């Protein structure tokens, strides 16, 4: 029997933590291994418990979720830990920072229960939760930030033309299946291209590929 996906819930509101725990525990393939009320506590519990997925609130006292995510993702011992950010706001100004910090994606706190459970499974499987609506929020945030505050462009040296095509579609929020259909490729081939992109660009996951696509100038926000 496959071991359940181990989830750590990090939120400063006890009621929400309890609600998330109760929901997650209804799924036989998921289990909550711990709860954190601050970002600092989340970092400590990740080290102690080694969860598969951290459900991380953006706004928390004593180290916010973004800084906690950065610390978790920069630790080589946490290479298999995925962070799924939660926010109350549809256009949270921290979305771009959260993904750059290493988050595998983000959800709104009013996401339907079934979608939240599926998101945990998707992230645990190594994918990133970047539906087109998520990508649009990311694009909007990038477009709003002053040019002077954006990161320096990242080079795409060694990336082939076909890989650039795949990277562009990833940045637009397309799934592997949609990319395969768009480029008339097999799903296995698309997965191979994405694997090569992750290696060549030293990206942790699909979310960071989206960031790189914008930082490199390969994809630009629509006016």
UniProtKB/TrEMBL annotation:
PROSITE patterns: HTH_LUXR_1 (PS00622), HTH_LUXR_2 (PS50043), RESPONSE_REGULATORY (PS50110). It holds the Pfam family GerE. The modification 4-aspartylphosphate is found at residue 57. Residues 152-217 form the HTH luxR-type domain. The keyword DNA repair does not apply. The keyword Phosphoprotein applies. It comes from the Bacteria. SUPFAM superfamilies: C-terminal effector domain of the bipartite response regulators, CheY-like. InterPro entries: CheY-like_superfamily, NreC/VraR/RcsB-like_REC, Sig_transdc_resp-reg_C-effctor, Sig_transdc_resp-reg_receiver, Tscrpt_reg_LuxR_C, WalR-like. Keywords: DNA-binding, Phosphoprotein, Transcription, Transcription regulation. Residues 6-124 form the Response regulatory domain. This is Response regulator transcription factor. It comes from Actinoallomurus oryzae.
